[in-house]
Amino acid sequence: MSAGATANLDELDVGHPRFAVDAVDRILARARELNASDVHFHPTPSGLELKWRIDGVLQPAGRIAASAAPNVVARLKVVAELLTYRTDVPQEGRIRGAPGSAEVRVSTFPTLHGERAVVRLFASAERFGRISELGLPGEVEPALRRLLDATSGAVIATGPAGSGKTTTIYACIRDLAASTEGRRSIATLEDPIEGAVSGVSQSQIDAAAGFDLTTALRSILRQDPEVLVVGEIRDRATAEIAFQAALTGHLLLTTFHAGGTAGAVSRLLDMGIEPYLVRSGLLAVLSQRLARRLCEACSVVDPEEGSRLGLAVDRPRRAVGCAECRSTGYSGRLLLAELLLPEAHGVGPAILERVDSRELERRAVEHGLITLEERAASACRAGWTDPREVRRILGYGRNPLDDL
Predict the structure, then answer these.
(1) What is this structure's pTM?
(2) CA distance linking residue 277 with residue 16, whole number of Å
């Protein structure tokens, strides 16, 4: 890692009374400059190892001496309004009024060598404000826009943590709020609220106060919403109420953790949601991943790269690393997306039959579904990313690029 991507703490005096304050300020400011999504403060016998997640990958950021480590974590707890004297239990808080951020969350956890802290830096409220800025591939963007015109049914964004699901949902509600000019009632239930959207009624879930998602969902339906946004479906009770709402004149937008579109459908069925509810209420499932883009300044064609990874790839490119990409070989990210439309892709009967996810996907592909694997193959052909990055985000269980 180049020096330009470190926290640059060497010029601070570890023995100075303000070291912890200045170090935390400098680390968080530098993380913002680098567009890091998370900062890790990992305790070791020799001190705190600093790492930050940039473009979805953890990278080294520096080190803080053991003598100053407890004070740095304590400073984080102070600004996050946590209890500094409790070092034996996990805590969660947020930094209020952090510049340039809708939300900054801090969590601490006791470990063998001291408290570990992770800071989550949410994106600016105005980042990726509209659907047109997401970079959705091909036919997916116009299809998603058409879905937002529906008066009922559920649209689910799925993928692992950090795949951009929430960003996509926010872009959808911003487009809805702008295009309808207040003529549709839009309400959200979120945990946390990651950014304010003009013209939208947003509510923060607070389970500790008894305002959990299930309770909030039942109550919000009495508020006459036409578009209902649920931050995440996590359990059967929430899913059942949400799908009932989708069948009774509400457009539902939500996120869900699943490996792909077919996997999301199977998981809903495994949670105990009746197949007729899923078939009747589900408009679409959007599965997405964020892949790092190859740095245009230094990536090279490497005929051996595909074979090393067990992939049949014609003239694959490989990341190298240079000053422009801070020696990572990548610069920025691109969105890979798969959009399953149950009726258009002929899987309605498969849902009622409760077929497994592989069979459901097979039938959808027969009816024209373009999978994440195919999107990844196209991105490699175009030289936007490389086989190694595809393997990182899609895993090694399947061979997505065999047809290249």
Answers:
(1) 0.87
(2) 63
Tokens describing residue 204: 């923060």
Orientation angle between helical segments 213-220 and 236-246, nearest 10 degrees: 20
> How far is CA 148 from each of CA 142, 151, 163, 189, 287, rounded to the nearest angstrom?
10, 8, 21, 18, 17
pLDDT tens for the chain, 404 residues long, are 444 578 888 889 999 999 999 999 999 999 999 989 999 999 999 999 999 999 999 999 999 999 999 999 999 999 999 999 999 999 999 898 755 455 789 999 999 999 999 999 987 656 658 999 999 988 999 999 999 999 999 999 999 988 999 999 999 999 999 999 889 999 999 988 888 899 999 999 988 888 999 999 999 999 999 999 999 999 999 999 999 999 999 999 999 999 899 999 999 999 999 999 999 999 999 999 999 999 999 999 876 665 555 555 566 788 999 999 988 999 999 999 999 999 999 999 999 999 999 999 999 999 999 999 999 988 888 889 998 899 899 985 554 444 44
Sign, CA dihedral 380-137-194-220, equals: negative
Give me the residue label for tokens 């990572």: 328
Angle of the 357-366 helix axis to the 261-270 helix axis, nearest 10? 140
Beta-carbon neighbour count of residue 29 at 10 Å? 13
For residue 282, which amino acid is it? L
Amino acid at residue number 398: R
CA angle, 141 then 369 then 397, to 5°: 110
Q: How far apart are CA 177 and CA 73, in angstroms?
A: 41
- How many CA atoms, within 13 angstroms, populate the side-chain half-sphere of residue 205? 19
Torsions phi, psi for 236 (to 5 deg) = -65, -45
Are 299 and 383 contacting, i.e. CB atoms less than 8 angstroms apart?
yes
DSSP 8-state class, residue 254: E
Write out the H or E segment, with its range, that includes residue 111: strand 104-111
Tell me how crowded residue 364 is: count the other CB atoms within 10 A of its CB: 24
CA distance 44 to 116: 9
C-beta of residue 170 within 8 angstroms of C-beta of residue 194: yes
Which residue is it, tokens 């798969």?
338
Q: Do 299 and 320 form a contact (C-beta atoms < 8 A)?
A: yes
Query: 254 pairs with which residues across the strands?
Result: 156, 230
Output the DSSP codes for 271-331: TT--HHHHHHHEEEEEEEEEEEEEPTTT-EE-TTHHHHTT---SS-EE----TTTTTSSEE
